[in-house]
Design goal:
- This protein is an alpha+beta fold.
- The protein has a single domain, classed as 2-Layer Sandwich (Alpha-Beta Plaits), CATH 3.30.70.1060.
- It has helices at residues 17-32, 55-63, 66-69; strands at residues 2-8, 35-40, 46-50, 73-79.
- A 4-stranded antiparallel beta sheet has the order 2-3-1-4.
- A hairpin with a 5-residue loop joins strand 2 and strand 3 (46-50).
Amino acid sequence: MFLAIGTYTTEWTKDDPLYAAHRDHMVTHVDSGALLCSGPRAGGGSVLIGNGTDRAAFQSILDSDPFRTAGYVEFEVHEFTPGLVDERIGFDLVTGKSL
């Protein structure tokens, strides 16, 4: 799994023409299961949790984000293996099997 910390390098608002494309990009990858979640973080920036073990595939998702291609955000990526998972999530994050 992967944790990406996004730092915004450009000010933007939800009225920005790129915002809809950025949101659509995130929704596509959440719907596909490649991203477990994404969203803003306190103090500015963003956090994304990527599902899977293919770092190149996760990096490709980040690199193709319209905010990234326009230079609005930089990402710091950390790979990790969950040791403990709250059963309310409903599946094992490591194996993908239902709990």
